[in-house]
Here is the input.
Amino acid sequence: MQHYVERDIEKILLSKEEIAIRVKELGEQISKDYEGKDLIAVGILRGSVVFFSDLMREIKIPMEIDFMAVSSYGQGSKSTGSVRIKYDMQEDIRGKHLLIIEDIIDSGWTLHNLLEQLRGRKPESIELCCLLNKPDRREVEVPVKYIGFDIPDEFVVGYGLDYASKYRNYEHVGILKRSVYE
Ligand SMILES: O=P(O)(O)OC[C@H]1O[C@H](OP(=O)(O)OP(=O)(O)O)[C@H](O)[C@@H]1O
Ligand code: HPA
Here is the structure.
């Protein structure tokens, strides 16, 4: 059966096979960097769920997991200011090494604002891990230690990423046809 997403995408940007190779590399790097450390990985809902579940299985050291859901104020023309926490993590991160897992960094405001808030909770360290990075869209500098892929300024869906809450359940990352959103 043809996947419904295929009707609406221009082309596949990253196949599930390419993604799997890169996710394995990231998992190996994270496993080395955090060996002997108290690691907690926190996934940002909802876009990161597919990446998160694949990545955690490539991390070969003890770890905790948790989740948050956030939204930036002023979506569209995303502005400075705070991020609204819609669902907070359940674990206390004081003294732990926190690794935030995101699907994509675009303007950078979501992660910039989230970092500000989480620093106040006094984790031992905080690092960011994003599957996708759109460097051409950045409005604020954000230190992302682990990046899966730099991608062009195109709207992408699949592997957890959505447009209007659809397309998350597509196994590849595809470029959405402009006719879908213009
Ligand atoms: O760098 P920025 O310009 O701030 O954009 C990146 C954010 O936008 C997306 O979230 P979205 O609000 O679409 O929520 P979702 O994860 O539920 O899809 C994505 O998951 C990041 O959180
Ligand atoms: O290209 C994208 N796709 C899905 N969600 C996003 N949020 C920022 N950029 C994107």
The beta strands are 9-14, 39-45, 63-72, 83-87, 97-105, 125-133, 146-150, 156-157, 173-176.
